[in-house]
Design a protein that fits this description.
The protein is mainly α. The protein has one domain. It contains ten helices and no strands. It is globular. 33% of the residues are buried.
Length: 195
């Protein structure tokens, strides 16, 4: 096996271990197909070297997808859903400080996956029911990716603020318990506002 194959296997195992640990930590259960999909998603972004994932606003990609033939639409919607999930999970705190919030990314990703769930299986390589689960449980999978980001990839002094910000968007009971253990009472403003 060449060096590239070894790196690929190690990267797959690395992300699978991170994902399974985060899923246990966040008490999120899913099928092996979802786990496989999320590992491949993390690998795809790990191999991106400025490969255009963030060159254009996702909303433009989303809208333009509906002006293309079904096979191209599938690829564009998948790219929107995957990018939205990746960004809102791994970079929630930095997105929170931007013009658009994590809510924007989460809704866009959820909607893209929902559209993909009704595509005939012959159009794309991923079954529609997998996309339906990604759409329905988008916030759960954001929590899992946020846990990977927070606990394993980007640890730092802003640990407490990151958990509180994540809790504001996901309302995870796991995060609420962590905050209470550290003397912070999670508070959701009335009327569903998050800032």
């Amino acid at each position: 096996m060449g060096g590239r194959g070894l790196l690929q296997n190690n990267l797959t195992e690395f992300f699978r271990d991170l994902l399974q640990t985060a899923m246990r930590s966040q008490e999120v259960h899913s099928s092996e197909a979802i786990e496989f999909y999320l590992v491949k998603l993390l690998e795809a972004f790990a191999h991106t070297e400025g490969g255009g994932w963030f060159d254009r606003p996702l909303a433009i990609e989303y809208l333009e997808a509906f002006q293309t033939p079904p096979r191209h639409r599938y690829g564009r919607l998948k790219r929107v859903g995957d990018t939205a999930l990746f960004v809102s999970g791994l970079f929630m705190e930095s997105v929170h400080r931007q013009l658009v919030s994590s809510d924007y990314y989460m809704q866009l990703g959820r909607t893209a996956y929902a559209h993909l769930s009704v595509f005939p299986d012959a159009v794309g390589s991923v079954p529609g029911d997998l996309f339906a689960e990604l759409a329905d449980r988008f916030a759960d999978f954001v929590r899992v990716l946020a846990d990977i980001s927070f606990e394993r990839l980007f640890q730092g002094d802003a640990h407490l603020l990151r958990i509180y910000t994540r809790w504001m968007y996901t309302r995870s009971e796991h995060d609420a318990r962590w905050l209470r253990r550290h003397g912070i009472i999670p508070y959701a403003p009335p009327g569903g506002r998050r800032h």
